[in-house]
Amino acid sequence: MGDRGDVVLKIAGKTDIALFVSVAAAGLICLLFLKQTQNISENTEAQYDVIIEVAGEEIVRFPLSENTTYSIDQEDMHNLIVIEDGSVYMSEADCPSQNCVRQGKITQVGVPIVCLPHQVIVMIVEGTP
Questions:
Q1: Rg of the chain's alpha carbons, rounded to an integer?
Q2: What is the number of other CB atoms lying within 10 angstroms of the CB of residue 118?
Q3: pTM
Q4: Residue 72 neighbours by CB distance under 10 Å
């Protein structure tokens, strides 16, 4: 009977270690994600820019601190991007799903607004001081 108890402890020990490593890895991934998507209001000294990409190419960059609108009108697509009060959002798009418009305002680095049908990506990035 002593041998059987040792086997159960060894199996439970290996399972516990695997579970611990999995939870620790998931926690580390969450921590890195939260660090990447820091809220801009937490870091008032850094400068942030809004980049707008179409089909994988950056077409324009604006300071996040500058209230402005930018319209993309190419062929059969229309997107209107608004930068205002430290946030950015897609106010208009003529894509069928309207997911990019419904996403609302973003204020964090690393959280993009994506219009898949038009291949438009809007992101906040750390700018150059």
A1: 23
A2: 21
A3: 0.66
A4: 19
